[in-house]
Amino acid sequence: xxxEDIKDIINNNNWLKKCLSCLNDKNSFLLLTKIWDKxxxxxxxxxxxxxxxxxxxxxxxxxxxxxxxxxxxxxKIIHDARDLWNILEWLYWDSQKQFIDIIWQENIKKIFxxxxxxxxxxxxxxNENKDYLMNILWLDWVKYKIKTSRNFLDMYRWLTDKKAxxxxxxxxxxxxxxxxxxxxxxxxxxxxxxxxKEKLLLKYLNLWN
Length: 209
Description:
With 209 residues, this protein is mostly helical. The chain has helices spanning 2-9, 13-22, 25-34, 39-42, 46-54, 59-77, 81-88, 94-103, 105-111, 115-122, 127-137, 139-144, 149-158, 161-168, 173-177, 183-191, 195-204. The protein is 73% helix and 0% strand. The longest helix is centred in the N-terminal third of the chain and has 19 residues, at 59-77. It starts with a helix and ends in a 5-residue tail after the last helix.
């Protein structure tokens, strides 16, 4: 009966947030397990899910919640990179990687329509998790989405140095040069890079001794 009473009381997102704010890690998880079958009705979009995650201090319990919701339901509320970002904003360290695993590789690829959407996500990931996401997406697949010098710049700039080297190797030197209309455009491009990335690119283009 008590379980049913809890389910009757917590029947919307606001009540769930209030309850989680007052509970410790152990009890917040117990609450989620009590109402697991109602969560898909209480949480109807990624902004609401993000608000719930922000009230859960434990990374372990955040992942437990995401696993309770299951991949199929998460994919119903994750429509684009912004939805993915709403969730990742409240996950840290290994939790980011675990969430990516919950979504699955092929589903992740379907979410990203352009390099700009990939960059939105890279901004919130740790370096280790940036590399993990790139391994899932495959750099060859990312390269296919590079259409302009701006695409190339933004993608290259947000990769870790390790992945930046691998990324460059996917291009012929002539392919990179053809992205730029003239030397002035290339020079402006270089000014926007951190020193480490600038050096890597110049070396790859045989312009650094």
